[in-house]
Amino acid sequence: MADNIPVGSTTEGAIQVGGDHPADARVSAPASYDVADFPVPHGREEEWRFTPLERLRGLHDGTAVDDGGVRYEVFTPAEATQERVGRDDPRLGRAGKPVDRVAAQAYSSFEKATVITIPKETVLSEPVRISVHGQGGTAYAHHVVEVGAFAEAIVVLDHTGDATFGGNVEYVLGDGARLTAVSVQDWDGKAVHAGQHTALVGRDATFKSVIVTFGGDLVRLHPRINYAAPGGEAELYGLYFTDNGQHQEHRLFVDHAIPHCRSNVVYKGALQGEEAHAVWIGDVLIRAAAEGTDTYELNRNLVLTDGARVDSVPNLEIETGEIVGAGHASATGRFEDEQLFYLMARGIPADEARRLVVRGFFAELVQQINLPELQERLLEKIDTELEASV
């Protein structure tokens, strides 16, 4: 992929060492359950400057009222349990509080939260599956997944249909636990989805997040990582395919406040069509106490047609020099004719060659899912997206 930046795309980035925390507006947002603690955004705020607020259908200003327009289905293997609990349940909020108005609105508006518990030292025989299917209405939701010490699990959240949806998810990992969480946004074309995904990673625990975004008119997700003890590892992978007129925004924050923890972020996106807009914000904060931190974040974007826009903003703030490593990279490039020519010269038709190039671009991320039926579904979805542009 070329290193040039297409017209309509921007790549920003900053590494801040010490100082007076100039990145606090991005990486240290206030946290609260109270909607009133967050002013209604107007689009001039740093955390909202890329988001078309008029397309949020009231999720940001309190006018979106839950009318039950979403159907939920939760499957848990026999080894796990699920409960429906009220807002006063002490297990809610352990991973972290809401950090923007939409997340706070979602927290204060759901009727019952779902808590899924995997007991300690348990290896699930099959994944937990949470299906969110929009039926044309508005809904708020809160899910908590607790993984006991030395347990292992896969959780799949699948979003389909049409809805205005505000949904928060918490993942709490005990010591030595291993969790892979896959969130698929395969909404219909008019859906709006905003939410916060927060993980609290225990001592020597491993958390893998795979976020896949295809559908929706507007999707705005805020994955966050907190560490509870040394030795925690977080792998954050993302795949998005932004089509004509879609706005897809992923705002990540990794808070290294505990020593000897690791994080790795890889997000890749492809864009096509007029006014397709993808936003990726990757914020990593290494606090003074977090000696021995090892972190890296990478964002790559492939622009398939004219008229698409990418805003890619990696930020890294370091408050201690006693770290293993820290870095970031971001690049946006056009689809290269040389790659097509190479394949076509070997007898591969143009459409098939284009499909192979894009599949190859996303291959390493799809492989992280480790669920063959879901991998095949996502590859088929990529093919469908490409066929629509031919």
Automatic annotation (TrEMBL):
Residues 134-361 form the SUF system FeS cluster assembly SufBD core domain. It comes from the Bacteria. One of its GO terms (biological process) is iron-sulfur cluster assembly. Residues 1-26 are annotated as: Disordered. InterPro entries: Fe-S_cluster_assembly_SufBD (IPR055346), SUF_FeS_clus_asmbl_SufBD_core (IPR000825), SUF_FeS_clus_asmbl_SufBD_sf (IPR037284), SUF_FeS_clus_asmbl_SufD (IPR011542). Belongs to the iron-sulfur cluster assembly SufBD family. This is Fe-S cluster assembly protein SufD.
